[in-house]
């Protein structure tokens, strides 16, 4: 009887170890799946941030261009006003530099 009991215990231990190994494999697989999903979400958020930064920079450049145009127009008006004030009949041409 004792040998049967020991044999049963050995089989039980082997089966239990196999189940634990399978559970560990499942845990590792689950962890790797979660890490991959996290990485994909993280990359997606970083892509959105980059797109927002590009859009912000585009808007900033557009506003800077408008600001420069307004400054040039104001300078032209000032020159025209000075010319009229001092009786110059000639219109001074201001060339825009790129």
Q: Can you describe this structure?
A:
This protein is mainly alpha-helical. The chain has a domain at 25-85. The chain has one helix and no strands. The protein has one helix at residues 2-85.
What's the short version?
This is Trihelix transcription factor ASIL2. The protein has 98 residues and is mainly alpha-helical.
Classify the beta-strand content into a percent band.
Answer: under 5%
| Spatial gap, N to C terminus | 101 Å
Structural class call reads mainly alpha
Provide the helix percentage: over 70%
Number of H/I helices: 1
Tell me the total number of β-strands: 0
> How are helices and strands ordered from N to C?
H
Query: Uncertain runs with pLDDT below 50, 5 residues or more?
Result: none
What's the story with the biggest beta sheet? none
The outline comes out as rod-shaped
Mean pLDDT: 83
Rg from Cα: 39 Å
């Amino acid at each position: 009887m004792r040998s049967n009991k020991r044999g049963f215990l050995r089989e039980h231990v082997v089966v239990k170890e196999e189940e634990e190994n399978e559970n560990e494999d499942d845990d590792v697989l689950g962890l790797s799946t979660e890490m991959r999903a996290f990485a994909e979400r993280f990359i997606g958020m970083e892509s959105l941030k980059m797109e927002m930064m590009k859009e912000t920079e585009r808007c900033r450049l557009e506003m800077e261009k408008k600001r420069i145009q307004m400054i040039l127009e104001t300078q032209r008006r000032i020159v025209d006003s000075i010319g009229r004030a001092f009786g110059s009949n000639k219109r001074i041409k201001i060339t825009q530099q790129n």
